[in-house]
Each structure stands twice: as C-alpha cells, then as structure tokens.
Specification:
Shape: globular
Region (G-domain): 73-221
Domain Tr-type G: 70-237
Strand order of the largest sheet: 3-4-2-5-6-7
Binding site for GTP: 79-86, 125-129, 179-182
Number of helices: 15
Distance between the termini: 35 Å
Largest sheet: 6 strands, mixed
Helix content: 25-40%
Low-confidence stretches: 45-51
Strand content: 15-25%
Bound molecules: guanosine-5'-diphosphate
Protein name: Translation initiation factor IF-2
Number of strands: 20
Organism: Levilinea saccharolytica
Amino acid sequence: PIQVIKILMTNGVMANINQLVDFDTAAIVANELGFEAALESLEEVEEKETGEIPLWRQVIMNEDPRSLVKRPPVVTILGHVDHGKTTLLDAIRHSNVASGEAGGITQHIGAYQVEHHNQLITFLDTPGHAAFTAMRARGAQGADIVVLVVAANDGVMPQTREAIAHAKAARVPIIVALNKVDRPDSNPDFVKRQLAENGLVPDEWDGDTMIVPVSAKQKMGIEDLLEAILLVSDSMDIRANPNGKVLGTVIEAQVEKAKGVIATLLVQNGSLEMGDIIVAGTSMGRIRAMFDYRNRKLRKAGPSMPVLVMGLSDVPAAGDIFQVYKNDREARAVVEERKTQAQNRQAAVPKATLEQLFERYQAGETRELCLLLKADVQGSLEPIVSELKDLNKSEIKVTILQAEAGNVSENDVMLAAASKAIVLGFNVTADTAARRLAEAEGVSIRLYDIIYRLTEDIEKALKGMLEPEF
Ligand code: GDP
C-alpha cells in the first residue's frame, strides 16, 4: 500500500489507504508497477466482493440484453440533519416546469418523478437515511445515484460521513449538492477540502465527484443539479426490460382507515398492471387501484416508476422486494414459505462476530474485515486508525467504514448490519437501543479501554487466533 500511495502522490493524488480511485488512475499506478489493469463490470466486482447481487439487479441481468431499454435513474437524497434535504426535494419537485404541469397538485407518496430535457428522473422522497439503510440492509440497493446534501456554511458532519459510507458500501455514485450557498457565512472552498479528505475529490480538482452549488431555499442551481444527475446516469448502465419479469421495491406503506393498506412501490423491472397479484415480504394481494404521485389513475407502470397501490393484505416493510405471481395459489405458497423461513431465522440470527468472519474468510466467502470505530474523543481515533491500517498487510483487507467520536448508537449498528461490519468502541459505551438492535441483527460490538487490546484482538482475528468471546 505504501508503494501505491507513493506513486499516487507523485501523480498528484493525495490518497489515503481507504480511498477509491478511478480506473484511469489505477491503470497508471498499475502500469508504473509493471502490471496491466483490466476493467471489470460492476456486476463482476460486486459478485466477487460481496457475493450478493441485489435480486432486482439479478433479474435484469437475466433478461435478454436485446430486451433492455434505458430507464430513468433512481436518485436518493442523503445528508446531515438541517442541511436542506427536505427543502431541496421540494425545490426539485416544483422545478418541473418542462412538463407544463408546474403548480399541479402533487401528493407525498415517498417518491416522485421530474422531467428534465425530456428525460425522467425518479426521486426517493424519504429524507433521512432510514429507508436507504433499510433497503441496503435487505440487499435491495434501489437507488442508482446518491445526491449528498452538504450545507456550505456547516460542512461535512457525522451524518454526511455516514451517508458517504453507505453509498460507498452500496457502490452507488455520489453527486454533492453544496447547499445554502446564498448564506453570507457559506464557505464552499473549505467544504470542498473537507469533501476531498473524505474521498470525494471535486472534478474541478481533477477528482471524479461533481459538486453542484445550490440554494434549495432560493431555488437556485436546481437545473444544474438535474443536469449533473443526467450526466452521471448517462455514464452508467441504467436499463431494464419493461416487458420482463415484474419486480421492484416497497418504498413505504401504511394503513388508512377508508382505503386499507396503501403502499408506494418502485417498479424496477417489467410493468406492473391493474389486477396483478403481488407478494411483498409476507404480504400479498391483487392490485385494486394504482396512482402516480400526481394522484392520476394508472393502468400500467414501467421501470423506475413509483406508484401508489391498494389491495395488499398487510403492511409490507420499506425495502421489501415485491414480485408479481401468476395466481393466488402461487402467491399464497410463497407467503407461507417466507413465514416459515422467518420463524426459522428468528431462531438462528446470523452473527457478524470476529470469529465467524474468519470462518467465512476461510470458506472463501469474504476477503474483507469491515470495521466501524467509535472513540471518546477525536484525538484517540487517529492512533487507532493508523494502527489498524498497519494491519492491512495481512491477507484479509481491513476496511474502516467510519471512525468517529461518540458513544455507539443505533445508527452505527444499522450501518454495521448493512455492511456486515463489526463495531469497535474505545472508551465509549453502547446505548440501550444500540445494544438491542445489535442483538436482533447479530452485530458484534466490542468495547475497549486500552488501545493495544483493541488492535491485538483485530490482529488475532485476522490470524484466526481469537479466543471466542465470553
Ligand atoms: P433537512 O433536515 O436536511 O431536511 O433540512 P431542511 O430542508 O428541513 O432545512 C433545514 C433548514 O435550513 C430550514 O430552516 C431551511 O429553511 C434551511 N435551508 C434549506 N436550504 C437552504 C438554503 O439553500 N439556504 C438557506 N439560507 N437556508 C436553507
């Protein structure tokens, strides 16, 4: 790693050990070391590194390539609280003048679409990252692009870093919306430096992250942001078969007194039609009514289209995959099977302990140990991170998803569960909610008050020598 970093630096890339570099840069480094770099497809990389491709993506991969057509990109907006996610989503929603329906009545169904230069973009309208986490934890990874909102007066904050970690783990490209540039105390250059330090190097500095200055409040820069989204999506393979196998993800769902269960579904492949029999999680039903976010009745909805549907028996969970089945009998069998599976799973929660990670490594299932680090103060993080990075010479790659000051929270556990990571705490505690979630999700939280004990444990784990816990 040191050699690689040296070459990167002589080429003007101030990289740290966990940083992603683009293919061209990697190819130059490889070349200087006497190797030739070959480009793998995203699917190949995912298959190798995580062993699991989201079901919807697998379905699309199994479609006849000739049947695949471009679909609108699905965008999710993440960022620290109060940095302007909600305001930005509203500004984008109202920017939709091209369709000539500006000012039209829209309803919040958890997702909406806008048109820019005759191209549709789907936005997941669930500010906060709870839905995104839930989707990732279930391997759905529904979004194609993340727009990361960072307030230009406040800069990179804990939830900004968390969002970056999520997007990186899901391998979803990030566009930064540098918000609140109207404020007199905004400091874009400072924030850009912070972003670069977090692995998002602005394209104006020869990095590959687009950073778009906006003011969500004054509705400035919105066009540029939409433009950037289309640019990034054009460079990606965002396609599906509108006539293929029908499936997608549940965005949100609830019960309403008069209407029963209403659910927002994002169609990801095929076309969903009135009367279809669907199963989502352990909920099933026939689609009795279907609307878009403008409350217009629909008969049919194709890929990347968010729709509100009625007719499900129970409330499915956000992030559940839904699929269409031929008849009631088939659907019922799937639901029964899932209910039994869920009961069995409850009995044996898979654990992400150090011991088991090593077993998975030996079984060839993983080559990476993901860690989430919490410490009492910023000052204790640096020595721990640098010692952990030294361990990276072993065969198992050590990736530090996040290193932050503060007690172990529910959010940390959620991120760890989604990324099969282990939580390490130094001089901190884990709050009750975090411990409860860790137990339910099988996430291991290890707390230390001596640095070398912590690094020693990780070192032992990497060698497969760790004594079992308790
Ligand atoms: P969220 O928590 O990320 O969803 O943030 P909100 O959208 O609720 O915004 C938080 C606060 O910042 C609100 O008071 C907004 O009015 C304000 N705000 C959002 N965008 C801007 C902006 O572009 N400029 C200024 N000056 N204030 C903004």
